Amino acid sequence: SRDVSEIVVAHKDRMARFGFELIEWICEQNGCRIVVLDQSNLSPEREMVEDILAIVHVFSCRLYGLRKYKSVIKEDPSLPGN
Asked: Which neighbouring-strand residues pair with 6?
């Protein structure tokens, strides 16, 4: 059902770190539009740099989380081999 006709966000990156245009296209295909309140225009190069930084940030956080999870597994006495 097409219950949502409009989505309002303060900044593009509040909806998605990267891939905003894809989400916007999917919304349009389903009869919904996205309104971005802060329409700061960036050069294509600057936009690409921000996308790459966002991707690096996501993966660095994921690696940090995996390291933390690994130590939790090592220290769990209920698991075999501990």
From this structure: 33
Query: Do both 34 and 66 map to the same domain?
Result: no
* Domains: count for the chain: 2
Q: Verify that 31 and 63 share a domain, yes or no.
A: no
pLDDT tens, per residue, the chain with 82 residues: 568 899 999 888 788 877 889 999 999 999 999 999 987 777 888 888 888 888 899 888 888 877 777 777 778 888 787 6
Domain match, 34 and 10 both? yes
The neighbouring-strand residues paired with 9 are 36
Closest CA to 32 of 4, 10, 1: 4
Helical segments of 1-82, H only: 12-15, 20-29, 44-75
